[in-house]
Amino acid sequence: MDIAWQDFVARQEVLVAMRFSYFGNSGWKSDFSKTKAMLFEKDRLIMRMGLLRSLPLPSLAAQTDQNFHLMVLCSYAMPEWAQTALAELCAEVLPEGKYTVAPRRYGFAHFHLSRFLVERYQTGPAIQTVLDDDDGFSTDLIASIRREMVELPPMADAGDMRFISFCRGYGLDLSRKDPATFALYRHRYPYINLGLTMMADVAGKNLFSIRHRKTPQQHPCRIVEGPPMFVRSVHEANDSRVEVSERWKPIADWRCDPTVVERFPYLPPL
What we know:
Blueprint: H1 3-11, E1 14-19, H2 36-39, H3 42-54, H4 56-61, E2 68-75, H5 80-93, E3 99-104, H6 109-121, E4 125-130, E5 136-137, H7 141-149, E6 161-166, E7 168-173, E8 183-188, E9 196-201, E10 221-224, E11 230-234, E12 249-250, H8 258-263
Parallel strand pairs: 1-2, 1-4, 2-3, 6-10, 7-11
Antiparallel strand pairs: 4-9, 5-11, 6-9, 7-8, 8-12
Helix pairs in contact: 3-5
């Protein structure tokens, strides 16, 4: 193994990119993304903040490797009360300096992420992964990113890209709203945004600008099977078209499942 490459990966901060009700072009296909009235409707924003508090933020706070930074892309057009509440919520869960709430104007999400990468890291490659505001990571996701990244060939030039796809995770069905009915499922989805990690030059492509099902297959990429590494939620206000399917395998009495308790400790209390 290349020692210099191993040391480089070990030192790199992992950027976790999140979109919170961003009004612009960001790859969303839901009706909510098309109009401000729907996107910024008060009850919807309150619900999204509840999910943010319950899933992604505690999953980051519980990481065994804390060398990461969360960038929350939101919108200047979002109501002021919501912008304030979003910042306060992040501050409640994560230490100062561990996150940036970044309100931006209407535009392309990949452009705003690119500018943030350059501002934070100046030059060279950066490790990026995506976490939606209603999903969560296993407690060892950041540590696993480093472990898998060093197994890929070192970056040779500015145009190089490296990818990891953690393809096994959980689906959490919250659609009936009653906690007694919440159901957890196992599923496998390679190359979706959740569980996908990318290393690329900060001035080049980023995770919001690639074709996440095709681009990784054109570059060195590790498909990681192993244990579940993420949880996707299903609810009435999903921004993606995720839904429970035959591919999802239910977990009986999931709140007592040893793997869930150990690696997703924020799920059983829901």
